[in-house]
Design brief:
Shape: elongated
Strand order of the largest sheet: 1-7-4-3-2
Mean pLDDT: 85
Distance between the termini: 116 Å
Low-confidence stretches: 22-35
Length: 365
């Protein structure tokens, strides 16, 4: 019996290594199959992700939004999104595609002029990859807004077709583009070079000086009497020449906007001498307007606080004029119309008056 078992084992043992080899091979094939059966969903081309951990891009260039300066750049295409813990991301690249990293960093404020609230902010950030544009300004993208000028560094990943070689970050303001070449950080600013010449918010307010409007003059023949004329004052608080105003857009070529912020009187004491034994009590309503060299403002008089802008006084009013680029401005004429409604007993009367100031154009920016 033992001899038979020994004979049988003798015949079987030579095949054991072969069987073990087949088992190992089967296990290896099974592992490969498991690895190849990646069931993570694929990103759609154009999807934007906020995965951190990709490291700094090699090259950046400075571009300008109407309210901030940004340094932007793009990295090389990658097959996988980064993960801070080293695990696989929960999404794969599009079939045959890849992910491109885009970084942006706020490097300082630009003095924004606007005639609307909320801000129009006709601005878009894009990744341009082999001639195809991918928006970064949608949900989850690089959404810098004028309402939050203190946004700092941001990083996003864009799912793109293929593995593009020609990469750039584009800032589009209206119809004007700024392009940063990702390969070396070189920048084509285009019309935005004029934004680059604007002062920072800090520089503007450091250099700001009030300009007195001088003495007013009456331009009406009504019986209204201004009781305390020396207390009726007007100041030009600040001026700015800019190629772009939010809510209007870009100035025409060869032109720019002159933005003027004034601090007009908010109250004028008036009376109407009529010889009556009982004085009439008047309540005045003021309305302000301005012309530059005979041309009206491009926008209605705007309360700068209502526009969300920083102001130095409680009653600042803004006007925007179209002027020739780098040419002297005409004289500024500021008009305050007074509507005085009076009551004596049960009798009412309304009178109107108009006062004006002229500020020489040489005193403006």
């Amino acid at each position: 019996m033992q001899d038979a078992i020994k004979q049988r084992l003798g015949r079987t043992l030579p095949f054991v290594p072969l069987v073990l080899g087949l088992v190992v091979l089967a296990l290896a094939v099974a592992v490969v199959v498991v690895k190849k059966s990646d069931d993570r969903p694929r990103a759609e081309v154009g999807d934007v992700f906020a995965n951190p951990g990709g490291g700094a891009v090699k090259h950046r260039g400075e571009v300008f939004l109407p309210w901030i300066r940004l340094e932007v750049g793009a990295g090389e295409p990658r097959d996988e999104l980064p993960d801070l813990l080293g695990a696989d991301a929960n999404v794969r690249a599009p079939k045959g595609g890849s992910f491109v990293q885009v970084q942006a960093r706020n490097t300082g404020g630009v003095l924004l002029s606007t005639v609307t609230w909320p801000y129009t902010a006709d601005v878009e950030l894009l990744l341009r990859a082999d001639g195809t544009d991918y928006s970064l300004s949608g949900p989850g993208g690089l959404n810098y807004t004028a309402a939050d000028p203190n946004s700092t560094s941001e990083e996003r990943w864009v799912a793109v077709k293929g593995h593009p070689k020609d990469l750039a970050v584009v800032v589009r303001i209206g119809d004007e583009e700024q392009v940063v070449d990702a390969s070396d950080g070189s920048v084509e600013l285009g019309r935005a070079a004029e934004l680059a010449a604007l002062p920072s918010v800090q520089e503007h307010f450091q250099d700001r000086k009030d300009i007195g409007c001088g003495r007013f003059r009456r331009t009406d023949d009504s019986p209204v009497q201004i009781d305390y004329p020396k207390s009726v004052e007007c100041k030009v608080q600040q001026t700015l020449r800019t190629p772009y105003v939010d809510g209007i857009g870009w100035a025409e070529p060869g032109h720019e906007f002159l933005v003027v912020q004034i601090d007009p009187p908010d109250y004028v004491d008036v009376s109407v001498p009529d010889g009556a034994p009982t004085a009439t009590s008047f309540q005045d309503t003021l309305r302000h307007s301005a012309e530059l060299g005979g041309s009206a403002s491009l926008s209605e008089p705007a309360d700068t606080k209502a526009l969300g802008q920083y102001v130095l006084g409680p009653t600042a009013v803004q006007f925007v004029f179209d002027v020739a680029k780098d040419k002297p401005a005409g004289d500024l004429t500021i008009t305050t119309r007074i509507r005085a409604r009076g009551q004596r007993g049960f009798a009412f009367r309304t009178e109107h008056a108009r006062i004006e100031w002229t500020v020489p154009g040489r005193n403006l920016a």
